[in-house]
Amino acid sequence: MAREPVILNVYDMYWINDYTSPLGIGVFHSGVEVYGTEYAYGGHPFNFSGIFEIHPRDAADLGDHFRFREAVLLGYTDFTEPEVRRVVEELGKEFKGDCYHLMSKNCNNFSESFTKV
């Protein structure tokens, strides 16, 4: 049986977090790392999955406005790598690029949904 760590990777999205995070507020991006791949969600103008893969904790893959903040071990999965990929494919039907919304359907909502499967 597989016993693979599931890690939530958190990124600062803007320089302003240097000032606001001590107050407990900020703008953050998250992705879920499993089997050496980080899965995240972002918007684009098309009606297909907005889920993408990056190298874990590689803020450069996300763009200039991102900086890696922390990794949080959420637990372990017994899903195999192909099963994880099928879950991501199914979630892509819900998390389409043209459905992205900064407040109600964003990367953090995806991370939450993915880790509840």
UniProtKB/TrEMBL annotation:
Pfam families: Peptidase_C97 (PF05903)
Coiled coil region boundaries: none
One BP annotation, GO: protein deubiquitination
Domain of life of the organism encoding this protein: Eukaryota
Keywords: Hydrolase, Protease
Record-level Gene Ontology MF annotations: deubiquitinase activity
All residue ranges annotated as the PPPDE domain in the record: 4-117
Family per record: Belongs to the DeSI family.
Protein name stated in the entry: Deubiquitinase DESI2
Gene for this chain: desi2
